[in-house]
């Protein structure tokens, strides 16, 4: 193994310092996850940066025992429990800023593995930092400025949904409205907004949370996720009775998300009255500017590109890998978006009873900018690679 032993008690570091160093490094390099994994001979530390795991270093088992205890102490876990999985939250300060990490400890074949997810990731603070064009940001703002209606955001884990939602809430947070959220868990603390945590551990689900919140007559409600029929129904009702409701929903793209609402038993006419817009998004890694070069794509890359675009690729770029990008070939990320605004065209299509495929096709004919076309545009402009396009569009969970 080529990795250095970065974390060892034999040097100057105490377990406290090692944990500080690991979490500090993760936060500074904007990692979303830290995995501390016992292998046969040593313990490997990996971090997920820009959505992809990177090796970070190794530590001997002798150091790890105490490091693991430190993590358990931080999370108020049972230090003596070595078999059963444990989960909790850790509040941690790095460079005078507070972060929340979701920590899990679970036994694997070589010992207990620790997985830390950095929940408070101030990676992008607003729409434009996500890579959203001003014109689209204005459209989003217009759609959330009404006094009622439903605005949905969809995309897989790590697609920047939380950033979009919180940018929206911050935009609305003028001090003149009551904004209430139901989140599982609360990821960012936003001053001036009434945030409520839901989830099994707090004994509150989205539906009962929503009922409670509605009695307090808020102007804006954020519901963490619409994942069942009951939540969908009450969210729609709320959005038709003088509340602006923002939520996320599962779906490959905006059209898929709308059909998900139908699958959850929401009527077509309810969708037409309540739904304002759906924003679907992905985050793609940018090719490292320092080592980018033209290259010959593989036959399968050409095949997928051609199938998606309808024509073959011209010149394609990728990163060769260099010290600056830690040989990951990429540096930073950019958001791509698909915005389905419920206007006349969409309303007519919804009322026509069209199926998902037909709907998407008709929408495409009306000049709709889909995730596919936006992603391929990024490939054509050399911002990202075909490989990254495939990873984010097809492998995303
Ligand atoms: Zn590079």
What does this molecule look like?
The mean pLDDT is 90. Helix 5 packs parallel to helix 6 (229-240), helix 6 packs across helix 8 (268-274) and helix 8 (268-274) runs antiparallel to helix 10 (344-351). The strands form 3 sheets. Strands 9-8-10-11-7-12-15 form a 7-stranded mixed sheet, sandwiched between helices. It has a 6-stranded antiparallel sheet with strand order 3-2-1-6-5-4. Strands 13-14 form a two-stranded antiparallel sheet. The two termini are 30 Å apart. The chain has 2 domains: 15-118, Beta-Lactamase; 128-395, P-loop containing nucleotide triphosphate hydrolases (Rossmann fold, 3-Layer(aba) Sandwich). 35% of the residues lie in helices and 28% in strands. It is α/β, with parallel strands linked by helices and 397 residues long. It is globular, with a radius of gyration of 23 Å. 38% of the residues are buried.
List the helices and strands and how they pair.
Elements: H1 15-28, E1 31-38, E2 43-49, E3 52-59, H2 61-74, E4 86-94, E5 97-108, E6 111-118, H3 134-143, E7 149-154, H4 161-172, E8 179-183, E9 194-197, H5 206-215, E10 220-226, H6 229-240, E11 244-249, H7 254-263, H8 268-274, E12 275-287, E13 292-294, H9 299-309, E14 317-319, E15 330-341, H10 344-351, H11 356-365, H12 371-380, H13 386-395
Parallel strand pairs: 7-11, 7-12, 8-9, 8-10, 10-11
Antiparallel strand pairs: 1-2, 1-6, 2-3, 4-5, 5-6, 12-15, 13-14
Helix pairs in contact: 1-2, 5-6, 6-8, 8-10
Residues 288, 290-291, 319, 321-322, 324-325 line the site of zinc ion.
């Amino acid at each position: 193994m080529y990795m250095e032993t970065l974390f060892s008690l034999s040097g100057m570091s105490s377990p406290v310092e090692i944990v500080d160093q690991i979490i500090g490094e993760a936060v500074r390099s904007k990692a979303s996850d830290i995995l501390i994994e016992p292998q046969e001979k040593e313990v490997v530390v990996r971090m997920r940066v820009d959505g992809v795991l990177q090796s970070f270093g190794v530590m001997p088992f002798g150091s790890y025992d105490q490091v693991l205890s430190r993590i358990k102490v931080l999370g108020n876990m049972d230090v003596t429990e070595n078999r059963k999985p444990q989960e909790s939250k850790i509040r941690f300060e790095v460079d005078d800023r507070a972060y929340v990490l979701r920590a899990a400890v679970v036994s694997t074949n070589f010992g207990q593995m620790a997985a830390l997810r950095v929940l408070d990731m101030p990676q992008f603070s607003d729409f434009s930092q996500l890579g959203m064009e001003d014109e689209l940001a204005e459209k989003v703002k217009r759609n959330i400025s009404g006094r009622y209606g439903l605005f949905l955001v969809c995309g897989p884990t790590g697609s920047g949904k939380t950033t979009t939602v919180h940018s929206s809430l911050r935009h609305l947070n003028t001090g003149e409205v009551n904004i209430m959220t139901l989140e599982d868990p609360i990821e960012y603390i936003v001053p001036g907004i009434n945030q409520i945590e839901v989830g099994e551990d707090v004994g509150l689900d989205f539906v009962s949370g929503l009922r409670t919140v509605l009695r307090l007559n808020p102007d804006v409600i954020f519901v963490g996720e619409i994942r069942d029929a009951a939540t969908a129904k009450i969210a729609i009702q709320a959005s038709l009775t003088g509340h602006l409701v923002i939520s996320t929903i599962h779906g490959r793209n905006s059209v898929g998300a709308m059909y998900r609402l139908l699958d959850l038993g929401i009527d077509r006419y309810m969708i037409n009255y309540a739904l304002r817009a759906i924003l679907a998004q992905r985050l793609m890694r940018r090719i490292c500017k320092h080592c980018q070069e033209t290259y010959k794509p593989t036959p399968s890359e050409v095949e997928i590109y051609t199938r998606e675009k309808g024509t073959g690729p011209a010149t394609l770029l990728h990163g060769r890998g260099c010290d600056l990008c830690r040989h990951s070939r990429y540096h930073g990320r950019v958001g791509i978006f698909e915005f389905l605004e419920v206007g006349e065209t969409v309303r007519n299509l919804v009322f026509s009873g069209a199926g998902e495929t037909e709907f998407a096709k008709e929408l495409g004919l009306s000049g709709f900018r889909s995730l596919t076309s936006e992603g391929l545009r990024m490939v054509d402009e050399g911002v990202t690679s075909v490989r990254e396009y495939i990873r984010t569009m097809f492998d995303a969970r």
